[in-house]
Write a structure and sequence with these properties.
alpha+beta, 33% helix, globular, DNA polymerase, domain 1, 5-stranded mixed beta sheet
Length: 162
């Protein structure tokens, strides 16, 4: 079936079987491998992307369900060489170890900002990150990174990324 999507600001028409997951189109068809497949059960959040501005686990929706949607992957956040404030915060706060969960955590961080604004507490972030797994860290630096990323977004006047 033919599916039309806007991915990271670019229009794409892809041919995919009806049962194809969005994560498969992103990774296998379009080569956007920053979106990771971590568990195949929607438990880990490594496949988080923004669909029309809201974080979605891309292993849980069919590509056809995203027909006509604007999808943002981790690759679409930076402005050229300039990292998005949330990406920059993850780097500066050491909010990663192996990096496998990081793209999904960054996207989850953007969802937290979308839902709660840029003034976040560590407790709120910890609660909101439930359903996003990291097997390397104790989440302390991930939480610090989300709080710092939100603050960086506030400085730029960016309360959400859509």
């Amino acid at each position: 079936m033919q599916i039309s999507l806007t991915i990271n600001g670019q229009n794409h028409d892809v041919e995919a079987p009806a049962a194809t997951l969005l994560v498969e189109v992103l990774r296998d068809t379009l080569g956007l491998t920053g979106t990771h497949i971590g568990c195949d059960t929607s438990q880990c959040g490594a496949c988080n992307v923004l669909v029309d501005g809201k974080a979605v686990k891309s292993c849980t929706i069919l590509a056809a369900q995203a027909q006509g949607a604007a999808v943002t992957t981790i690759e679409g956040l930076a402005n050229g060489e300039q990292l998005h404030p949330m990406q920059l915060a993850f780097r500066e706060a050491h909010g990663l170890q192996c990096g496998f969960c990081t793209p999904g955590m960054v996207m989850a961080g953007l969802e937290i900002v979308r839902k709660h604004g840029t003034s976040l507490t560590p407790e709120l972030v910890a609660h909101e990150l439930e359903g996003n797994l990291c097997r390397c860290t104790g989440y302390i630096n991930i939480i610090k990174a989300v709080v710092a990323g939100a603050a960086g977004m506030a400085v730029l006047g960016e309360s959400q990324h859509a």
